[in-house]
Amino acid sequence: xxxxxxxxxxxxxxxxxxxxxxxxxxxxxxxxxxxxxxxxxxxxxxxxxxxxxxxxxxxxxxxxxxxxxxxxxxxxxxxxxxxxxxxxxxxxxxxxx
Length: 97
What we know:
By secondary structure, this protein is of the alpha+beta class.
């Protein structure tokens, strides 16, 4: 029970942070945009919306995100989505591979 209470408190404090609120506002401004519109407005989107780490290229161009999305969530040189994928990849990758 105590662990659940601590987790709930952590989640509530996360959603109260200014970065969370900024991402939430950004989401509301971009959620109805069609990918065709995003590509039409930004022909270099497929080149810019990629990240490379641990020998893998992550392509975010076909997701409803913008430069502002990645800027708002940037941490440790990559955005939070890329950092999460890198962590999972490293856990799955056999030692010495």
